[in-house]
Amino acid sequence: MPRVLRLDRAHDYAHLIRRWRALARRTGLTMTSFAKASGYDVFSLESARAGDGAPAIYFSAGIHGDEVASTEGLLQWAEKNSSLLREVNVLIFPCLNPWGLAGNCRLDSEGRDLNRGYNADIPQILAQMRLLAGRRFDLALTLHEDYDARGLYIYEVPSRPRHWAETMLKAAAGIIPADPRKKIEGRSARAGVVRRSITPELMPDWPEAFVLHFHHAARTFTVETPSEYSLDDRAAAQVAVISKAVALCRGEFRTRRKI
Ligand SMILES: [Zn+2]
């Protein structure tokens, strides 16, 4: 039997949104169109507030439209964890660049890299920022892919003392090993981890992770799966990394509440 591509609709935005809508109905998540971009609705999903007794977690995917394991992996994780979605406070951006996803393109319809626009005057980002105003998260995960990657890697903005990136990579190592390169995107890397402090001046054009780290999140990670691996494996690796990060977050939340 010839093998078929299982995730053959990964670039079908309407299909992705239908699946999120079905999941929202099942789990009580509120799904909202918070912006329009190039004729597409851009959505957020939010839990019916589990309250202060549960951690708050931010997820985003698909800001680069040619990185479909991010959108697919996030949805698969959510589908597998529907009961957990009631136990934590989640804010989910399932696909921040619908036009790019539909056309398999990193940029938006105006040629902008949205992940360099978090201090720019871009309507959908300003709308996203309004949604985030005054909100704090225990964990923020921004999900990506990289066609240069030789394995899975993670950017961790160091904040709290115990770092998590190595443990997150280990959770996915049976699916995709860590990227062995010593330099990734010009930065020092070690066994798939790029850990660096950031300041507002570090990059003139801010990625999403900057705004999250400076204003909203106690821990911020950017996850990168290697685009040249099979899509099934890349999505599964995203699921494994997300699961581990959420488990670590819930564990830390419980511990911190006891102190
Ligand atoms: Zn990306």
Percent strand equals 15-25%
User: Can you tell me the CATH class?
Assistant: Alpha Beta
- The class by helix and strand makeup works out as alpha/beta
List all distinct small molecules, including ions and cofactors, that are bound in this structure: zinc ion
Looking at the structure, what is the overall shape? globular
Output the CATH homologous superfamily. Answer: Zn peptidases
Strand line-up of the largest beta sheet: 1-2-4-3-5-10-6-9
CATH architecture, by name, is 3-Layer(aba) Sandwich
Note down, in words, how this protein is organized:
The longest helix has 28 residues, at 231-258. The chain starts with 12 loop residues before the first helix and ends with a helix. The protein has an 8-stranded mixed sheet with strand order 1-2-4-3-5-10-6-9, sandwiched between helices. It has a single domain (23-258), classed as 3-Layer(aba) Sandwich (Aminopeptidase), CATH 3.40.630.10. It has helices at 13-27, 68-80, 98-103, 123-132, 165-172, 208-216, 231-258; strands at residues 30-37, 40-46, 56-60, 89-93, 139-146, 153-157, 183-184, 187-188, 193-195, 220-226. It is of the alpha/beta class and 259 residues long. α1 (13-27) packs parallel to α2 (68-80), α2 packs across α7 (231-258) and α5 (165-172) crosses α7 (231-258). The relative contact order is 0.18. Residues 64, 67, 144 line the site of zinc ion. Zinc ion binds next to loops.
